Protein 1
Amino acid sequence: MTTKLHPGMKEFNSIFKKCNHIYHEIALKLNLSDSGFDVLYALCSLGDGCLQRDICEFTLLSKQTIHSSVKKLVNEGYLSLDRVSPALQEICRRSAQTCRRDIYGLKSIFYRFKKRRSLR
């Protein structure tokens, strides 16, 4: 069985995979798991005082995964339960900027796709 994807979905999948690859490479260079990097990224984005459920909603990871990742990050000195270190905040900011252009491009793709579907 063959499935034909809409060109917009193919482009979306390509951008999504590229962003995931970038985040994975950053995590590897920092000796972090992907979920550990996701937690730090969420903390950088959400700011101080966020709760476990906020991180779950932001990352779409389970509570158990968040708990395990936070515990490991604390044990390895990447994170204290008070705040993320300034160096890691900067890394998260830079990695967010790397994909921001592509994410804005996705909005355009979805808008065009939605507009075409509504014309049918």
Note: The mean pLDDT is 77.
Protein 2
Amino acid sequence: MITVLVISGISVIFAKNNLVNFQLIIPLNDMSVNKVILLGNVGRDPEIRYVEKRPIASFPLATDERPVRMPDGTERPGRTEWHNIIMWDGAAEMAERYIRKGTRMYIEGRLRYRIWEDRNTIKRTVTEIYVDSFELLGSPKSS
């Protein structure tokens, strides 16, 4: 059984079972989360550039949703989402050495939005994933 009690913006969670009794107090007013978890395939070799001698790697990562057959027999088509991945410093150096198009990766990071003007002074927006940690899960398939 789990009981959640909210008092003055503080969430107190009580969980009880045969093995564990614990209490977790979370101040909800001070809490905020920006966390992204992705599992997908790299779309192209990382592009490496330097900002004030700090390496930055950027590359696209594809995540897929499989097609789903509904109970009435219709099929919802599959879908691929592309994510702009950004790695800094040591992670960027690792990306330069080991990540290639087709590499399967697990990524944890944060969402960042950036607005910039192109040459024609048109405002553009981009959503990027700033990587906090990652794991390489497989090498690209050789052709």
Note: The two ends are 53 Å apart (CA to CA).
Protein 3
Amino acid sequence: MHLPPPALSTTSPTAASHPANCSAPPLFGSRPWTRATNPLSRQRLLARTAADALATEDRSLPAARLRGLVMSHPAWIETSRLRGRLRVRWQALFRDIDLLLCPPMPTVAFPHDHSPWTSRTLAIDGKTVPYENQIAWSAPATLCGLPATVAPIARSGDGLPIGVQIVGGYLQDLTTIAFAGLLEQAFGGLGAPPNLG
């Protein structure tokens, strides 16, 4: 993927003689910089190299995230069109139902982990998975701009909350929030876990 260089400075002799150079934006100080010295370009190059090395059959969340970071603009446009088609299907569903209830995460609540984000893991169905895979259940709503509210409905054996994700139709935020209020009345809401209270 090729990105055009930033706008050239007409006041810099270096920029005029070397098209790859340009005047530095304020974020990078006052020195001239090039794509090679731009830290964002280096990160992008590393991401592109890693994405190109992925196996074609790798459909994991980290692989999808990496491919998304470096997709071309035409690929992004096609992906956006797909999102539009998905949104139409969701709108059709919400003509027949008011709300969709689903898990908010692949696991119940777990103790806080303050280790670096990329090294965190969780056990799901006896398998160790990356912590960042927790976003899987939030994607259907956020992908199509649907409102989603999470409410507690029970506690695990350890006393940690188990929640439900309440997804509503486009712009129906107040519906999901109102339903969460009804769940609070029915299930008692959320209090501090026993070992923290």
Note: The two ends are 53 Å apart (CA to CA).
Protein 4
Amino acid sequence: MINHDLTEGNVTKSLLYFAAPMILGNLLQQCYNIADTWVVGKFVGAQALAAVGSSYALMTFLFSADRIVHGRRRSFFLLYR
């Protein structure tokens, strides 16, 4: 495992290094949403496309809430290990 000290060196490089996995995850999630919208719009119809479009914000919120819960649980166990 690579250890990278975020408190030393170039701040911009450290922030980009730290944020890269989250940025990549968001880009992949956006690609999934684009593909889902294209397939539903092409093969299912307008009402289904409206449902996909309206559910995107809800799904993004739920995934973010899930990440927050798992992160807090992990930090709790590390703190009281």
Note: The chain has a mean pLDDT of 77.
